[in-house]
Amino acid sequence: EIVLTQSPATLSLSPGERATLSCRARQSVSSYLAWYQQKPGQAPRLLIYDASNRAAGIPARFSGSGSGTDFTLTISSLEPEDFAVYYCQQRNNWPLTFGGGTKVEI
Amino acid sequence: QVQLVESGGGVVQPGRSLRLSCAASGFTFNTYGMHWVRQAPGKGLEWVTLIWSDENNKNYADSVKGRFTISRDNSKNTLYLQMNSLRAEDTAVYYCARDRSKGRYFDLWGRGTLVTVSS
Question: How confident is the model at residue B103 (pLDDT cuts 50, 70, 90)?
């Protein structure tokens, strides 16, 4: 199975700052990577798919980049509602796998 | 309203069975693949299983293969997860999730149902 490693585990930032989250795959997943946001007590929400495509209704401050084994989720200017846990997920190989998550906290 | 609503969770003893349901509304259920994804308390996300829209093609994580069975009733817009031989490590919130355009991403999620396996 493809292991996804997210870093850092926790990111401490302030509203208005830029957040850069990393997801590294142990082997290539091409561009078949997604990002999700999860707030406490809620289900995850799809943000980005195929590495760089924003899902419906996702604000433009969220952007994704990368291919192969290295991927980045960038939040250009943090809003108060962006403080949450973020997961990456690959669909290039079975089984579908998630990274361990990055918590973005104030 | 486009939504997924899970039900059927609860406390069950190790080795016993439980069936989860997920009621879909607001979209054409029979054209979408559907997944179950779980999250152990305080942990990350784990994909469990997928059933394609035609009901015949299914995929499972190794951790549940042979114990869990996914199914769907397109006439009732409902997804199921039959869980047999439950173990303590199956304790989790179970989410049903819609597949995004056969892309094996999850673009719509339910709120989840908690399954606790404990004696």
Answer: confident
Residues of chain A with C-beta less than 8 angstroms from the C-beta of B95: 43-44
Q: CB-based contact (8 Å) between B45 and chain A?
A: yes
Could you report the per-residue pLDDT of B55-72, keeping only the tens digit for each? 889 999 999 999 999 999
- Kindly give, in sequence order, each residue whose CB lies less than 8 Å from that of residue B111, ignoring residues fewer than 6 positions away: A42, A43, B5, B6, B95
Residue of B nearest to A88 (CA): B45
In this prediction, residue B96 carries a pLDDT of: 98
CA dist A2 and A96 (Å) reads 8
Residue whose entry in the numeric block shows the structure tokens 């049903």: B96
B116: burial class by Cβ within 10 Å (0-12, 13-18, 19+)? middle
Distance from CA of B27 to the nearest CA of A (A): 15
Is B52 within 8 Å of chain A by CB?
A: no
The answer to whether B65 faces chain A, any CB pair under 8 Å, is: no
